[in-house]
Amino acid sequence: MPDAPRLSGNPISRILDNDGQRHPVQNVLSVVTIACGLIAFVAGFFPAAHAVACWLGVVGFVGGLYSQYVSATTPERALNIVGIVASFVGVAFGIYHGGFYP
After folding, report:
1. 101 Cβ partners below 8 Å, 6+ apart?
2. Which helix (H) or strand (E) holds 20?
3. Which of 12, 22, 36, 100, CA to CA, is 20 to 30 A from 67?
4. Residue-wise pLDDT tens digits, 59-90
5. What pTM value is reported for the model?
């Protein structure tokens, strides 16, 4: 909405809350999902970090599915999808390199 008032606060809220309303819980869930997914994805490339990739990938995947369920705006949903996919790939690489336990 071009005439919607801009929310004051941090830049992440300005990007994710594009409907003019605040969604602090959904924003935190989306950011945690993308963070877990990216860490799991990167850790999946290192065989020594397979346990980190697996566990953070599972947390990011399950948390991302819940975050997608309660999301309120399209930017939140986009972050959720990227985080869910990265978490899944991180888990797959982690399982390939050794599984959930060191």
Report:
1. 51
2. none
3. 100
4. 999 999 999 999 999 999 999 999 999 999 99
5. 0.88
